[in-house]
Amino acid sequence: MRTPFIAGNWKCHRTVEEALALAQAIVRGVEGLSGVEVALCPSFVALPAVAERLRGTGIAVGAQNVYLGEGAYTGEVAPRMLAGLCRYVILGHSERRHLFGEDDRLIHAKLLAAMEWGLAPILCVGESLEENEQGRTEEVVAAQVEAALADVEGRLWQERGGVIAYEPVWAIGTGRPCDGATANRIIALIRSLLAERYGSRIAEGTRILYGGSVNAANIGEFVEHPEIDGALVGGASLKADEFVAIVRRTRAVRVSDER
Ligand code: PEP
Asked: From the CA of 233, how far away is ligand 1's center (Å)?
């Protein structure tokens, strides 16, 4: 059985002090809660302090991005710098794709570099509003998954604990989430692509999340579907009470009914 997973993407928010206070409030809120994995992804600036604060709590830490390696790359962070500091790294987020021009080739290269240094990618894929309206969701999502995982070995993907997040671009930060049944269908498609590529054991063992305007009121609508293993949460992860409620609701829906 896959352990449900709720990851908070704090994006470009919070000073170090504010990040520590938020992490502390979340630690208190989920203390003693089993059956759901939680990860927090602060900015690079706050990451070391938050990682230190979360040590021994069972809450994992993730970065929001990483570059390919060390060198003359002003402003970038190399995977080796994150190794040992955090477990996860978000890659291919729509804000990286659309605001910073990251394409499938770069995302694929980052994914390989991150995994080489022991990090677990949270690979984000999802169609734009225009692609959705053109009925191209499946085609776009499949192409993004295939490009990111091209020549990535199944054994390595499994060992690192790679995660995929289906995040329709039009649902991110808009307050207009995808409906649960549709997200479940697209996530099932992603799992079938993993099965073709790596076989059913790895596909069934990979967590695939939904992301896009998730909050405490709607998380149940997603995790009640068998293919949806949790959520990548943006805005709502900046409010400790809301984020904790998302984790608790996920546990109530998924852990009690042992799918
Ligand atoms: C995200 O940033 O990955 C995200 C899903 O944001 P939000 O929850 O705010 O839509």
From this structure: 5
CA–CA distance, 114 with 78 (Å, rounded to integer): 8
Residue 23 structure tokens: 């992490």
**Ligand 1 touching residue 121 (CB < 6 A):** no
Backbone angles phi, psi at 4, to 5 degrees: -60, 150
Residues tagged active-site: 93, 167
Point out the ligand 1 atom lying closest to the alpha carbon of residue 231. Answer: 5
Residue 78's closest CA among 91, 86, 89, 68?
68
Q: What is the pLDDT of residues 4-42, one digit of tens each?
A: 999 999 999 999 999 999 999 999 999 999 999 999 999
Residue 62 sits at φ, ψ, to 5 deg, of -135, 155
Q: Is 91 in the pocket of ligand 1 (CB under 6 A)?
A: no
